[in-house]
Structure formats: C-alpha cells, structure tokens
Specification:
single chain; alpha/beta; seven-stranded mixed sheet; 10 helices
Length: 258
C-alpha cells in the first residue's frame, strides 16, 4: 500500500523558514546588480522560494535544492534583467515562456510592480504550482498563469503581436525562441533570453531566424555576478513584419532547424 502523501502547502507560513545562507546569498547578488527591493518585493520572492522548495519534494520544479543556491542560481539570475527592464516598466506586458518553477517571471514581477506578467507553462502540475505561488505571495493582481504552449498562443489573433517583452530562461535554443517569440511580440518588442557558455553557433542560428521572421537587432550582455560566471542575457528586438507561417510546430522545427 502506498504511503499517504501530505497535502502540498498553499500558504507561505506553512513552509520552513529560509536559512541565513539564503539571505546572505540574495543580499550579495542584489548589491552586485545594484538593485534594492522594497519589503513587499522581498517577501514575495522569499515566499516563492519557500513554496518552491516545499513543492519540489513532490514535483521536480528545480534541480537546485540548496536555498543559497536557489538565491543565486534562480532568483538573482532572473533579476539580472531588471536593470534593463526597468526603463520599459510603465504599462508593459511580459510573457514568460516555459515558466516551470516561476523563473524568471515571478521575481521580475515582484521587483517591477509596473509590469503585468503572464507565466506560460505547458505542464499542468507546474502551472498548478505557479497559481499557488502567485496567490500565496500577493502577486495575483499583476501576474496571470496560463497552462499552454507558445505555438497555441500565437495562433490566437488576440495574442499575436501584442506583447511588449517575451522572456525565456532554460527553455530552448535562441533560434527556436526567436521563432516562438517574434509572432507574439508587438513591433519593437523584445525577447530576453538567459543563456550561458559558448554561444557562437547558437547566436548564428538565431540571426538566421531573425532574418527569416522579418528582421531585428541582437545584443548580448555579460552578467557580472558572483556565482553566475559565463551567464549572458541575450536581447533581441523585433523590427519587421513576421510572416503568418510562423511559428512552425515542434516537429517541423526539428526537421528543419535554423
């Protein structure tokens, strides 16, 4: 007979407190980014991490189980886009592709209250976690969760060409992200992709995708944060008209990669 599993927590106060090592790692990363979070943003981020670690026992939301590692490897890594996004904050809409455990979308939403964020996650168990975290951390007024795929969203006329920013972290190749994001972005909108390691071949493919999807501008920003060596933020702006034939379905992208 299988043991009865305790219900997963839906309130932050029902999860273990975070250790001092988490606080130290988060504080250090914020200083290196030059960011200051108000008390509400910090509480939302901490609550998200507490729920993430509690739910990860039952659902594989993160391979990082050490709270200090989550602080640097997930939270601070997600917040590396905030200095750049802050200039675009007022009235902007962010679509976070493949949110998984909520990164980068939830920390960005906490840090930038002027942004409306939608977390797009195809796995229903992960989407259920995201809804729980959004409600429990007080972010429901500006964060929505959609269980679905970017290809399906782009097929809806009301969604196509309407988003200011599309974010994607640990989701797909840069070229695939261009194909998924450009149809959803408004003219002049940008894709922000978190990447690391040697990107020469990946960026060459991304540039081919950009050209095929109407044109755009690609910039790479190094991340200067302890513990995130080799991490980069790739910013790609849509400048042209995206053909209606994109994005292709996953099988077509596999058959004819960029």
């Amino acid at each position: 007979m299988e043991p009865v599993r305790e219900p997963l927590p839906t309130r932050v106060q029902d999860t273990p407190a975070l250790p001092d090592e988490y606080e130290h790692a988060l504080d250090r990363g914020l200083v290196q980014l030059g960011l200051a979070l108000d008390a509400g943003a910090r509480a939302a981020i901490d609550g998200h991490v507490r729920l993430l670690l509690a739910w990860t026992r039952a659902i594989n939301l993160t391979a990082i189980r050490d709270p200090a590692g989550v602080a640097t490897g997930h939270v601070i890594d997600s917040l590396t886009a905030v200095p750049w996004l802050r200039d675009r904050e007022s009235g902007q809409r962010i679509l976070d592709l493949g949110s998984g455990g909520g990164f980068p979308g939830l920390p960005i939403a906490a840090a930038l209250p002027g942004m409306a964020v939608t977390l797009l996650e195809p796995t229903r168990k992960k989407a259920a976690f995201l809804r729980t975290a959004v409600d429990a951390t007080g972010l429901a007024d500006r964060v929505a969760v959609v269980a679905g795929r970017a290809e399906d969203l782009a097929a809806e006329p009301s969604q196509r060409g309407t988003w200011s920013v599309v974010t994607a972290r640990a989701v797909a190749s840069a070229a695939d992200l261009v194909e998924l994001a450009f149809p959803l972005l408004e003219p002049g909108g940008v894709l922000a992709a978190w990447k690391r390691g040697d990107l020469d071949a990946e960026l060459a493919a991304a540039r081919r995708a950009v050209d095929a999807l109407g044109g755009g501008e690609l910039d790479v920003h190094d991340v200067a944060v302890h513990g995130l060596d080799g991490h980069r933020l790739v910013i790609i702006r849509r400048t042209g008209r995206v053909p209606d034939t994109y994005p292709r379905d996953p099988a077509a992208r596999r058959r004819r990669p960029w």
